[in-house]
């Protein structure tokens, strides 16, 4: 009885209440016609419950989110395909996809009928202003009768995960100055930019491809000369993120930590697209190794990263020193508030000729000029920005396109 009543809608319960009332009044007043009307009103929702509960539809559901990973503040489209694989047509179906409130709330649809072996596709859009990983689904199908007296819910078990990444700031194309290291026959071979005359040739060796013969040098030297092999570059480096809670201030998207995460995501994507094989390191030593899927894995990590309770940068800086000792061409660190003691520890992570860039998210009095001087004296390029949006302009300084300013403010 309880299960039957739970399938009734408000209208169905009202019909039952009205039918019972009419039947009671018919006995009190001695009206047989009222008794017939009461029985009819009472029987209608009960018959609808019986019919709907005995309905056996075979439905399948598939869901596709495009894109499955998108930045905060942007939208994605979710397409749901519902198929009727039974031999009977469906009745009225009330469709509801469970969507977190952060993504916009539940998505609801009404389908009048799905023919046997037919399908219906539904689409809705989701948007989030807060990064994270969110569960979309499962899909709930409610079977309803034509009178709207009964709704019987059936749920699928499958659900999808939508990843909302930090906002991505498009950076100017190009690689930071000094980000390359490598060996080979020539460290200065730049045929495309400098022209053929600047190619450093060498003597012909048995087995060399004749297509590499440099005829101008051959005529000048009087012996067969060929172009040297192309430089084999090592393009690896490290992206460091300071996640210490004590180094950041403010809450929500405008806080320094969210701005630092956005800056780290923007830098990681830009350097990855430029061909650098990066690894990701945090202050507490969490690392992500270089791989062919590094960009996606980095965004997945940054979508859920939280501030740490640690107060020291030493665990992460140990990984930075290891990178510098290997001779990698670039280290980029994204920091919040840095004390002079922190700056001296960061400065010590640089070894040899490694190119090091420190992006500091600053606020009122958060980082002193002495801290910046310590890093610059140790050979670090320092960019102080008030937000991730200001990074686009400041990044030109890293690429050596203009003189390095003391401060790059948000527009």
Describe this structure in words.
It is built from eleven helices and 20 strands. The protein is of the alpha/beta class. It folds into four domains: about 1-55, no CATH class; about 60-165, Immunoglobulin-like; about 185-230, no CATH class; about 235-400, von Willebrand factor, type A domain (Rossmann fold). Strands 17-16-15-18-19-20 form a six-stranded mixed β-sheet, sandwiched between helices. The chain has a four-stranded antiparallel β-sheet with strand order 5-4-8-9, covered by helices on one side. Helix 2 (about 10-30) packs antiparallel against helix 3 (about 30-55) and helix 9 packs parallel to helix 10 (about 370-375).
List the helices and strands and how they pair.
Blueprint: H1 2-7, H2 10-29, H3 32-53, E1 59-66, E2 69-71, E3 75-84, E4 92-97, E5 107-111, E6 119-127, E7 132-136, E8 139-144, E9 151-155, E10 160-165, E11 181-183, H4 191-194, E12 201-203, H5 215-221, E13 225-227, E14 232-234, E15 236-241, H6 256-273, E16 277-282, E17 287-288, H7 294-304, H8 314-325, E18 330-335, H9 340-347, E19 355-361, H10 369-377, E20 380-385, H11 391-398
Parallel strand pairs: 2-10, 15-16, 15-18, 18-19, 19-20
Antiparallel strand pairs: 1-3, 3-6, 4-5, 4-8, 7-10, 8-9, 11-14, 12-13, 16-17
Helix pairs in contact: 2-3, 6-7, 9-10
């Amino acid at each position: 009885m309880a299960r039957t009543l739970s399938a009734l809608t408000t209208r169905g319960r009202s019909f039952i209440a009205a039918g019972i009332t009419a039947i009671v009044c018919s006995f009190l007043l001695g009206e047989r016609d009222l008794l017939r009307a009461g029985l009819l009103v009472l029987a209608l929702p009960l018959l609808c419950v019986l019919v709907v509960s005995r309905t056996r539809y075979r439905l399948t559901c598939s869901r596709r989110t495009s894109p499955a990973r998108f930045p905060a503040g942007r939208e994605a489209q979710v397409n749901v395909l519902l198929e009727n694989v039974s031999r009977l047509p469906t009745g009225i179906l009330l469709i509801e996809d469970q969507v977190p409130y952060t993504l916009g709330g539940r998505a609801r649809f009404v389908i009048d009928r799905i023919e046997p072996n037919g399908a219906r596709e539904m689409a809705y859009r989701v948007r989030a202003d807060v990064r994270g990983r969110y569960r979309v689904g499962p899909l709930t199908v409610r079977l309803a009768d034509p009178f709207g007296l009964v709704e019987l819910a059936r749920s699928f078990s499958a659900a999808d995960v939508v990843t909302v990444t930090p906002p991505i700031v498009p950076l100017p194309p190009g690689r930071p100055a000094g980000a390359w290291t490598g060996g080979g026959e020539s460290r200065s071979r730049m045929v495309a930019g400098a022209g053929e005359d600047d190619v450093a040739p060498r003597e012909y060796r048995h087995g060399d491809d004749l297509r590499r013969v440099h005829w101008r040098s051959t005529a000048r030297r009087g012996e067969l000369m060929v172009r040297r092999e192309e430089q084999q570059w090592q393009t690896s480096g490290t992206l460091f993120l300071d996640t210490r809670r004590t180094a950041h201030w403010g809450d929500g998207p405008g806080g320094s930590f969210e701005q630092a995460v956005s800056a780290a995501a923007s830098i990681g994507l830009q350097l990855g697209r430029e061909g650098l094989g990066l690894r990701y390191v945090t202050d507490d030593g969490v690392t992500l190794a270089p791989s062919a899927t590094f960009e996606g894995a980095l965004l997945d990590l940054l979508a859920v990263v939280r501030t740490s309770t640690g107060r020291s940068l030493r665990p992460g800086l140990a990984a930075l020193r290891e990178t510098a000792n290997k001779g990698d061409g670039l280290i980029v660190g994204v920091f919040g508030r840095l004390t002079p003691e922190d700056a001296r520890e960061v400065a010590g992570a640089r070894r040899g000729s490694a190119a090091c860039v420190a992006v500091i998210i600053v606020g009122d009095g958060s980082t002193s000029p002495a801290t910046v001087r310590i890093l610059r004296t140790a050979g670090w390029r320092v960019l102080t920005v008030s937000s991730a949006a200001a990074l686009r302009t400041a990044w030109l300084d890293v690429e050596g396109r203009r003189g390095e300013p003391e401060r790059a403010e948000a527009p």
